[in-house]
Specification:
Blueprint (H helix, E strand, L loop, with lengths): L20 H64 L3 H29 L6 H15 L4
Helix pairs in contact: 1-2, 1-3
Keywords: Membrane, Transmembrane, Transmembrane helix
Protein name: Phage holin family protein
């Protein structure tokens, strides 16, 4: 990682104990700024990944809702046709209803599985922030 040096170009940069307190604070500040930027980027990435998962699961829930609506529609149609004429029309509607019921069940189950993998917080960012806080408390360990 490159550090920002307050020294003029061409001047030899002091090393170790030869550096002034101001130079050390400048280097630490630059490193901390870089670290914070990296943590923010990691958090953004994690949140985007989780939002994508949640969006896909919500789409499947939407599909399950539509399929459930179709179940009710075709069940109603089957009941009407079955009562009106106990012949081929009612049975055909029952078969279509059964197909939509299976579709609804499959979409619901898939959506439920996907939603269970969604995490509400950026896990890796929280972990690295804990590590950073521990390092800040005990930088020599």
């Amino acid at each position: 990682m490159a550090s920002i040096s307050p020294m003029p170009p061409g001047a030899a940069e002091p090393q170790g104990q030869d550096r002034s307190m101001g130079q050390l604070v400048s280097v630490v500040t630059a490193d901390l700024q870089t670290l914070v930027r990296q943590e923010v980027e990691l958090a953004k990435t994690e949140i985007k990944e989780e939002a994508t998962k949640a969006g896909k699961a919500a789409g499947m829930f939407g599909g399950a809702g539509f399929a459930g609506y179709m179940v009710l529609l075709f069940l109603s149609l089957a009941a009407v046709l079955g009562l009106a004429n106990v012949m081929d029309g009612g049975w055909a509607a029952l078969i279509v209803t059964a197909v939509w019921a299976v579709v609804a069940a499959v979409l619901y189950q898939k959506g439920r599985q996907r939603m269970s993998t969604v995490s509400p917080k950026p896990e890796r960012t929280v972990e690295t922030m804990k590590e950073n806080a521990e390092w800040a408390r005990h930088p020599t360990k």
